[in-house]
Fold these 2 entries.
Entry 1:
Amino acid sequence: MSSALITVASFLLTVGLLVVVHELGHFAVARLCGVKVLRFSVGFGRTVWMRRFGPDQTEWAVAAIPLGGFVKMLDSREGPVDVAERARAFDLQPVSRRIAIVLAGPAANFIAAFAVFWLLFVVGVPGVKAVVGDPPAGSAAAAARLANGDTIRAVGAEPVDTWNDLRWLLLKEAVRRGEVAVDVQPAAGGTVTRALSLSGLEKEDLDRDFLMKLGLRPFTPRAPAVIGRVHEGGPGEMLGLREGDRVLAIDGKPVGAWGEFTAAVRAGAGRVLAIEVERGGRRLSLTGAPEAVGEGESRIGRLRVEPGPEVRREWERMTTTVRHGPLDAVPRAVHRVWDLSVFSLKMLGKMILGEVSWKNLSGPITIADYAGQSAQMGWVSFASFLALVSVSLGVLNLLPVPLLDGGHLVYYFAEILKGSPVSERAMEIGQRVGLTLLAALTLFAFYNDINRLLTG
């Protein structure tokens, strides 16, 4: 129940913050342009809270459906306007001002994302070094001659500090499914460049853990498989494992290191395993089944036990905190926002062309799930998630679809070209088309959300 409450609260906080940021962008520039703002609403539907503030007695409201918001400005197309206030009506402003007001919403989202990324770069982002384990035979990583203990330092010309960096940079390259150069530092030292082929990825793989399909898996410590903490009530405790046990074999196959133990457990989801351990100088035989986690190809076994101190020390050597100075963080934050924006547009274009699966389109249920997960991982993860969604919101609103900010910009640029406003008939048709498109995308996103819930 607490996890569900965190998910709901995190989702509402995410949507509320980003909608307020977006609409404040419209509001601030409208006020700078002398336009009268009648209402500032977070959410749609029935009003649950409302107060009037400011010299214009603007209505500040919170509505029942927290999936958006709007700024309502004085507009002569929506009713009569006093002669004394006609200069403050939105539709009677020069087209340059109307463009500035409309652009201000997405711009506010990009600025907010920049501020969050800058803060994270200065404070420091914890992560795991991109040290790889032995790749499976026949995988792309094996073909690139990567080996256990190799550290990936760069993908193309961009540096890699953590696994998150590696995943992001390879995701950008995976859309092209070509070959990418990776700079590798072997465990013995030095630096070499390898060619990693991404051609084996299918369009559906981008919605999954595509790194595993490439054969890129985290470094496997060579330390022995000694059990640390055993979670109370978990399958490991039910099986009879105790802290300090050294795993010697599973189903008759010798286990020499912690990575071999976890690999065997992951492969044994829902299946009874015969585990031989050494405890206090005696050899014991235990039997039991790991719990099955996930569905389909993602289904793995888990015993809910932690590694012993030697393995933990190995993992601690793999952790790092990436931070930069306040000035150095500025171009990095700008680059991150630009990178995410361009990638979002590329993904959308490839979805339209059928080169990327539409399963990558997510709706509010998936966003809520990610919000909850990131919130439970800590403020750094949640802040990163907020910045990512803020960029996505800015890009989405700039699409040339009527009802979105980008659709209004199309009307205004058309007005500049033809020398007069677009006819009401054309705008009405555009709104119907836009409403249909948005409704179809929303329904498809909900379908993807529900499908993810059912299939894991």
Entry 2:
Amino acid sequence: MKTIYDIQQLLKRFGTFIYIGDRIADLELMEAELKELYNSQLIETADFQSAIMLLRHEIRLEREKRQTRN
């Protein structure tokens, strides 16, 4: 996993489409869905770990952007 798009494509393979309209909420929901897939043993450990790291990094960046705007 290298991009958020890669994660979206992975989730799409399992019939999961996420769009709430709030970028941070979208990313957090993707993280929750990935955890469910991993706990159900539907995705590999390496895919899970890289996706979670990418999502958490992106969430941190989005929160920093919001703080600088306020």
